[in-house]
Amino acid sequence: MSGSLAKLAETTKRVINWLFKTKLGFYTLVVVLFWLKTYIVYLTKFNLGVEGSMQHFLLLFNPIPTGMLLLGIGLFFKGRKSYWITIVIDLVLTFWLFANILYYREFSDFLSMSIIKSSGSASDNLGNAIFGILLPSDFLAFTDVLLLIGLVGFKVIKIDVRVIKFRISLIVMAIASLLIGLNLTMAQKDRSGLLTRTFDNNYIVKYLGIDTFAVYDAVKTAQTSAVMAKANASDLKTVQDFLAKNKAATNASYHGVLKGKNVFVIHLESFQQFLLNYKSNGVEVTPNLNKLIADQNTLSFDNFYNQVGQGKTSDAEMMMENSLFGLPSGSAMSGYGTSNTFEAAPAILGQQGYTTAVLHGGTGSFWNRENTYKSWGYDFFYSLSAYEIGRASCRERV
Q1: Which of 39, 319, 380, 394 suits 283 as a labelling partner, its CA being 20 to 30 A distant?
Q2: Residue numbers annotated as active site
């Protein structure tokens, strides 16, 4: 018995020495910590709807191949530089994971290239919004990185100055690539057409991992851009023919009823119809809106359901003004509001001799409104800078 314990102790000592004193051992330690951290985040921060033994296995397995491949870049460098480059790569991957934790909590989806490209147009109050949804446990995603920095910085992990043969590094990368292929093969077998008929990004992440999803989304975004670049005016004919054949009949109850009148459209953020004429402790919740609703010239549409995607408010505006749905990824206003041609309500009113204006209490750059409203045909846009009251005063009055 004592002999077995001695062998176990000796083996453990050798493993620890290998992990803490060799470059390949350090690389293995980083990969293992990255794998465990990512898997725990999958289980605790996302709601991926994992079902069945294969999905559970792939969720456990998928951080390993991409972790091996990306962190393996550090193996091609020498000495201390190799260690710190590996840690920096781990830090970048962790920031990506952390950003997705926050984004998923708010939107139940993962960050896409479209969202990243349009993030500048939605930066107003972004810092306050992030702090509003942060949880202390989110920062645990950085635990392994901080641990590695401490171990290397305090020389608990010894720098192995020996150069790993280029052939060994290539073998490690080849194994990682083979594992990625194996992951994809098992995923396709369990879920046929995984990458060709995607309707839920949760499927990509739970089968292939969050880093593979980033690559998949980048490729899909590039393909979409390539298709759009080849588009020409003749492509519209098919769309126009379809619209002509399927155009809904005019509703006689509303057709022309506002002709010759001034038109005011009130679009409210996160507002539900039941609040109109609703009283709390005998007090009207929306007294001014109630007066407007009671007017015989006011139309209130109580069967209107906003179809918002990642563009949120901008998607609701897109549908209201253009009768178009938002995009499955990103914001149409941010991505295409400047360059596309729209058949929007303000432009149609302008053709009838109206002067149109839009008033919004946010900055003009938010959701690219300043440019998009011009594309929609608005003559004037009054953003936050047009009002005398400051943002703090606005909040107090609300």
Answers
A1: 394
A2: 313
